[in-house]
Design brief:
The protein is of the alpha/beta class and 222 residues long. The protein contains 7 helices and 7 strands. Strands 1, 2, 3, 4, 5, 6 and 7 form a 7-stranded mixed sheet that branches.
Length: 222
């Protein structure tokens, strides 16, 4: 399996953008474009509360950390986990400054509700892979917490989702190495995209010119 150097690392959070829309990811991560709408602003506020770097809380057999930096050489990604929960377990690993053995599970906070696609699950999977490499432990599941629902869902990180994460990661690195931005394509997803005003004008302009020329030719003028 190929490994990457830190200079090649991409953002873990980017895999969600990539799975949602490859052009959106390229506009953000290759062309450095960004615009915010209500959904992204609310999501950023939720993550700001979750990311309290260095915060640790211990309750009996549970240790909670926030804002933990993670990375993976095999994915070529790095980022920050909203929350990582460590549970005291006989089949866990040692943690510096804490007695006993511990198992880990990341908790990713999301604005809104469950998505129909796997974009959130893929992001969580990448966090799991990073933690596994860093801690030398198997992590079979993680959690997605949806703010709109005020509840979290346990997500099994099986072989299929891991294979998909590695496949998409490889595609992302290919785009990044070539500086490639896919062309725009209108879809239902565009309505909720914060970058639609930056992304779509070229399509709209081409469509307008095409319609103008069609009407011009049909009219028989000139």
């Amino acid at each position: 399996m190929r490994t990457y150097t830190p200079d090649e690392y991409l953002m873990i959070s980017g895999i969600q953008h990539f799975a949602f829309c490859r052009r959106q990811w390229a506009l953000i991560h290759i062309e450095n474009l960004w615009d915010e709408n209500q959904l992204t602003a609310e999501g950023r506020a939720i993550h700001k509360r979750a990311h309290d770097d260095g915060f640790k809380e211990k309750r009996k057999d549970l240790l909670v950390t926030r804002g933990l930096r993670v990375s993976s050489r095999t994915l070529g990604m790095s980022g920050t986990c909203d929350v990582v929960e460590f549970v005291h377990a006989d089949d866990g690993v040692k943690l510096n400054g804490h007695r006993g053995l511990w198992r880990a599970a990341p908790v990713e906070y999301k604005h809104g509700k469950d998505k129909r696609d796997d974009s959130d699950v893929l992001q969580l999977c990448c966090q799991v892979i990073c933690l596994e490499e860093m801690l030398c432990i198997d992590i079979p599941y993680g959690y997605l917490y949806y703010h709109a629902l005020r509840k979290r869902r346990r997500i099994e990180i099986d072989d299929d989702i891991r294979k998909e994460a590695y496949s998409i990661s490889s595609e992302m690195h290919d785009y990044a190495s070539r500086g490639y931005t896919p062309s725009a394509k209108l879809s239902a997803k565009c309505r909720s995209c914060s970058l639609k005003d930056m992304c779509l004008p070229k399509i709209i302009a081409r469509k307008s010119v095409s319609e103008y020329m069609k009407k011009y030719l049909e009219s028989g003028d000139g």
